[in-house]
Amino acid sequence: MTKVFRLTDIDCPVCAGKVQDLISKIDGVKSARVDFLVLKLTIEAEEKDFPAIMKQAEKAVKKIEPDCDIEDWD
Amino acid sequence: MAKKKKKFNKTQRKRLASILSGGALFILGLIFSILKLEIIGAVFFVAAGAAAGAMCVMRAINGIRSKNFFDENTLMTIAAIGAVAIGEYPECAAVMILYQVGELFQSLAVGKSRKAISELGKLCPDTAEVMRDGSFVEVTATDVLCDEIIRIKPGERIPVDCIITNGTTTVDTSPVTGESLPVDAVEGTALYSGCMNLTGLITAKVVRPASESAAARILKLTEQASDRKTASEAFITRFAKVYTPLVCIIAAATAFLIPLVITLFGGNFLEQFAIWGKKSLSMLVISCPCALVISVPLGYFCGLGRASTSGILIKGSAFIDTLAKADYAVFDKTGTLTKGNLAVCGYKTADNITESQLMQYAASAEIVSSHPIAKAICNYYTGELINATVINEIAGKGVEAKFENIGVITVFRPEEEKETTAVEVTANGEHIGTIYFRDEIKADSKEAIQQIKALGIKETVILTGDGTKEAERVKNELSVDKVYSRLLPENKLSKIEELCNNGTVIYVGDGINDSPSLARADAGVAMGALGTDAAIEAADIVLMDGSPKRLAEAIKLSKKTYKTVKFNIIISLAVKISVLTLSLLGFAGMWGAVLADVGMCIICVSNSMRLLKK
Question: Is B143 a residue of the active site?
Answer without folding.
Answer: no
